[in-house]
Write a structure and sequence with these properties.
The chain is an alpha/beta fold. It contains ten helices and 31 strands. Helix content is 20%, strand content 33%. Bound molecules: (2S,3S,4S,5R)-3,4,5-trihydroxy-6-oxo-oxane-2-carboxylic acid. The site of (2S,3S,4S,5R)-3,4,5-trihydroxy-6-oxo-oxane-2-carboxylic acid has 11 residues, from loops.
Length: 589
């Protein structure tokens, strides 16, 4: 799925900003025809979660439905164009009406969706856009939800969180990324898949798959350029898609220190007239997992960085450029080179920033803590659909170097996970992603409870583990924890002979808490824990990287284990450094 663009053939307007907002606790919006517009209850900023903006309306922990509305002027000259509306992400489900007409539903969060609304808009007038949103998750959604009754049925009262969630981050609701009105010509370039295969240090094959929305007789003018053009091709088109391969020389590779980017621009020409154009940036780079190594352009790289979250005061999970710039500048300050989009795909602007700054990203599907007692055909279907849409959005980003198609399955440690059900499920999931993309390795971070017989290890190209010895296991005893960790890592290596990535390790830490003894929650304990883990990890040649959990403190559902936030950040939620941030800067320099 291509990002909308503004150019000679396409228009693009960001219609984020202030929208009208109404909570629908009793699910009466449709009955009362709120889709025609509704009396304003309050205003809300888009992008942003409703939870922290409107906690005065008791929305901090709200799980349910709410409505958004905005009047949009559509100019006269859009009449002969195709008009679209695009939401970069809405969590989790939404339904759209334009001028009172139902347009469609979107079933999952964290990814963009669009609808053509040409037939429904009035050009030269105001139009009312209404979106209903609900953040309810169930057994067959990705992520999976949990209902409060389950806790009772399973006698798991101590695990109960409010709101009920299967994961350790707030299930915020709302329009979380920008909203656009855009236009395309009648016939337009619909998708571009670009893959590079290096043939030497400075030459590559480039395979391109270009599709248009409909069959067309014409030409595609293709230009690849860096500081100057390195490839110009014209190909005939007599259908709705074309695949071709070209060879290019004198290229500079995309890498950590020099994230060289190139521009691919395509013009669609019909009857000697350009009817559409599209350009995107990409990099020449290749990823391979081999022996004990993770190779970027044939050379081993060691990933150092974080598991993160999209989470910021007042914005909640809403995208904002300020925290994007701040987070990258802090990561660069401490010499991080990589992060995982735990536990869901982040805004595309994040990937673009990583492309430009040479960061390696493990891009994650929000199949977080799947409970195999509740996994069903619907869950698998949603999971596959999600992977499809994620690959479709992120396939061309050089910074995306691996897919994590889930996180910590079987957190509850169910025996039935190992009776073949888990293996069957993951076989299908891995197969789905590999069919869509044969250029990136695939993994799923495993939790301690699922253990070293986790079926995800059978299919992963590299093994990802999240470990908390010295925190959840053997609290207060870092040294002993490290001994157990070493034993377990060696066992995993001996069993699978696949390189290991430590995708999570860390401790909750209250800024300003200090102790000279090993005392949990102090800044010293966090710094020491991280340092000792890193020392062990670096002593093992089969380890390919370390991602500290977490970059910054983040809001969680309420539970006695969490003091408002998960505090494993090496920065506070407002991005002040804890001691560990300085320690990491030294260790990673
Ligand atoms: C994990 C999860 C992560 C939690 C973290 C923790 O293993 O993957 O979502 O936030 O542990 O801090 O407990």
């Amino acid at each position: 799925m291509l990002k909308p663009k503004f150019n000679n053939y396409r228009n693009l307007f960001d219609i984020s900003g202030i929208w009208k907002f109404k909570v629908d606790r009793n699910n009466e919006g449709v009955k009362n025809k709120w889709y025609n517009g509704f009396e304003e209850d309050s205003e809300i900023a888009v992008p942003g979660s409703w939870n922290e903006q409107l906690d005065n309306l008791d929305l901090l922990t709200y799980v349910g439905k709410a409505w958004y509305a905005k009047n949009i002027f559509i100019p006269k000259n859009f009449k002969r164009k195709r008009v679209w509306i695009r939401f970069d992400s809405v969590d989790f489900h939404s339904s759209l009406w334009v001028n009172g007409k139902f347009i469609g539903n979107n079933g999952s969060g964290y990814l963009p969706f669009d609808f053509e609304i040409s037939e429904f808009v009035k050009c030269g007038e105001n139009n009312i856009i209404v979106l209903s949103v609900d953040n309810i998750l169930t057994d067959d959604t990705i992520p999976q939800g949990i209902q409060a009754e389950y806790y009772k049925n399973e006698n798991r009262l101590r695990d109960e969180t409010y709101p009920a969630a299967r994961f350790d981050f707030s299930p915020n609701g709302g329009i979380h990324r920008p909203v656009y009105i855009y236009t395309t010509p009648q016939v337009f370039i619909e998708d571009i898949i670009i893959k590079t295969k290096l043939t030497s240090e400075n030459s590559s094959k480039v395979s391109l798959q270009i599709s248009t929305n409909t069959k067309i007789k014409g030409e595609l003018h293709i230009n690849i350029s860096g500081s100057e053009s390195i490839c110009k091709e014209t190909v005939e088109l007599n259908s709705d898609s074309i695949s071709l391969e070209v060879a290019v020389d004198n290229i500079k590779l995309w890498g950590l220190k020099e994230p060289n980017l190139y521009d691919l621009s395509i013009e669609l020409v019909s009857e000697n007239k350009t009817v559409d154009s599209y350009s995107l940036s990409f990099g020449f780079r290749e990823i391979e997992v081999k022996g004990t190594n993770f190779l970027l352009n044939g050379k081993p790289v060691y990933m150092q960085g974080f598991g993160k979250h999209e989470d910021f005061p007042a914005f909640g999970k809403g995208f904002n450029y300020q925290s994007l710039v701040k987070d990258f500048s802090l990561m660069k300050w401490m010499h991080a080179n990589s992060f995982r989009t735990s536990h869901y795909p982040y805004a595309e602007e994040v990937l673009e920033m990583a492309d430009r700054n040479g960061f390696l990203i493990i891009d994650e599907v929000p199949a977080v803590s799947l409970d195999f007692r509740k996994v069903n055909g619907g869950t698998l279907k949603s999971h596959k659909q999600f992977i499809n849409r994620l690959v479709s959005r992120d396939k061309n980003h050089p910074s995306v170097v691996a897919w994590a198609v889930g996180n910590e399955p079987n957190l509850v440690g169910e025996e039935s996970y190992y009776d073949g059900r888990g293996e069957k499920y993951w076989r299908e999931v891995f197969q789905t992603v590999r069919e869509l993309d044969d250029t990136r390795p695939v993994t799923v971070p495993n939790c301690q409870r699922a253990g070293i017989n986790d079926p995800v290890f059978l299919f992963s190209d590299f093994i990802s583990i999240n470990r908390y010895y010295g925190w959840y296991e053997h609290p207060g005893q870092i040294k002993y924890g490290i001994q157990l960790l070493e034993r377990e890592m060696d066992d995993i290596w001996n069993k699978y002979h696949k390189p290991i990535m430590m995708t999570e390790f860390g401790t909750d830490t209250i800024e300003g808490a200090h102790s000279i003894a090993d005392q949990m929650f102090t800044e010293e304990y966090q710094a020491k824990f991280i340092e000792m883990y890193i020392k062990l990890l670096r002593s093992k040649n089969y380890v390919i990287g370390e991602h500290v959990w977490n970059f910054a403190d983040f809001r969680t559902p309420q539970h006695f284990r969490r003091m408002i936030f998960n505090r494993k950040g090496v920065f506070t939620r407002t991005r002040e450094p804890k001691l560990a941030a300085f320690r990491l800067k030294e260790l990673w320099s």
